């Protein structure tokens, strides 16, 4: 280990970060802690390169892999990634929140990383309700009654669904690109040509050629999505490769393909989620305290904030994040996301 890293770690061990020790954080690469007169999210200025430990727990149909940071008795924050990303979208956010006293849980969604199906007979289902049910099962397995939820892309849709269907489990929510609950019926309506063009991969995945192409080229395919969705984010190969390991999950392609085909009504979901989907198809409002975020350079399809503001009937705030921030907002603007989590928790 380089002497510079040893020096930084020795310095960190001498510094109290909101009462949280380095061992409690469970993260590597923390550089320094700032004085107590700074905001909570900036108390731990970070240069984080990895989560040190990935835990595993049986939850519902899955054995879920997840990273954890912060004190075990702290208020819980659960952070959810999307496609084609993984838990490393939150690798710099987790220590910021841990330094503020939160217990941070960052799980791999089904089809990503170390998360595995417990049975080979379970459908590799990617419909919207099942991903939310997975996280409720995770909370049950970890004996977490209620949490602040945060997410983007699939993760934002999932926290929206959890807040709509199980508001008693959601203390507050941060959602990138706002309200993303959808329905198969709504997705039947054609969009203007320019909007349809942005969904090119959804139509590609609807074909057998698309499934075979994604299976054969998922590394390059997902790297292309990263560049298109965040056109001004100059990530390096090491950053992408770290997340690309998650796409090697044996169920990744099946879950992704099912997700997009389900949206278009080309495949069915599982019957036990039909009632959930009926409720979601009605576009339920969300009453828990919410902050929505949008980057100024989001190259992925996303709604205008004005279109969804009325969906949030509780305490609500929208924040536009400038500086060339694309679709992967948590990784591109970690401080802005961490600040939103801390602020929304205070609204609850």
UniProtKB/TrEMBL annotation:
One Gene Ontology term of the molecular function aspect: hydrolase activity
Membrane-traversing stretches: none
UniProt KW keywords: Hydrolase
SUPFAM superfamilies, per database record: alpha/beta-Hydrolases
Ion transport is among the record's keywords: no
Family matches, as Pfam families: Abhydrolase_1
Domain named AB hydrolase-1: residues: 75-205
Protein name as catalogued: Hydrolase
Gene source species: Caballeronia humi
Record lineage: Bacteria, Pseudomonadati, Pseudomonadota, Betaproteobacteria, Burkholderiales
């Amino acid at each position: 280990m380089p002497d510079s890293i040893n020096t930084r770690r020795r310095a960190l061990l001498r510094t109290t970060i909101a009462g949280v020790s380095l061992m409690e954080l469970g993260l590597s690469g923390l550089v320094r802690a700032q004085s107590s007169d700074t905001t909570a999210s900036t108390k731990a200025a970070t240069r984080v390169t990895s989560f040190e430990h990935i835990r595993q727990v049986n939850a519902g149909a899955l054995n879920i892999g997840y990273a954890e940071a912060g004190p075990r008795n702290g208020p819980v924050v659960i952070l959810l990634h999307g496609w084609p990303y993984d838990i490393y979208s939150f690798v710099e956010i987790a220590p910021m929140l841990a330094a503020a006293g939160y217990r941070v849980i960052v799980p791999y969604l089904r089809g990503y990383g170390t998360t595995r199906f417990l049975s080979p007979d379970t459908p590799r289902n990617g419909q919207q309700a099942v991903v939310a049910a997975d996280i409720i099962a995770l909370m049950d397995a970890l004996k977490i009654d209620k949490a602040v939820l945060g997410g983007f892309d699939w993760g934002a849709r999932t926290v929206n669904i959890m807040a709509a269907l199980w508001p008693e489990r959601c203390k507050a929510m941060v959602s990138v690109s706002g309200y993303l609950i959808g329905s198969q019926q709504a997705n039947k309506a054609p969009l203007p040509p320019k909007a349809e063009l942005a969904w090119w991969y959804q139509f590609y995945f609807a074909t057998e050629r698309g499934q075979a192409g994604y299976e054969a080229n998922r590394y390059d395919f997902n790297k292309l999505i990263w560049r298109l969705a965040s056109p001004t984010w100059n990530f390096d190969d090491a950053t992408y490769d770290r997340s690309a390991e998650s796409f090697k999950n044996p169920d990744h392609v099946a879950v992704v393909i099912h997700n997009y085909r389900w949206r278009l009504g080309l495949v069915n979901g599982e019957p036990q989620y039909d009632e959930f989907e009926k409720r979601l198809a009605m576009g339920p409002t969300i009453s828990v305290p919410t902050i929505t975020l949008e980057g100024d350079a989001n190259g992925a399809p996303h709604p205008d904030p004005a279109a969804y503001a009325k969906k949030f009937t509780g305490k609500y705030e929208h924040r536009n994040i400038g500086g060339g921030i694309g679709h992967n907002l948590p990784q591109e603007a970690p401080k802005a996301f961490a600040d939103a989590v801390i602020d929304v928790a205070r609204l609850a």
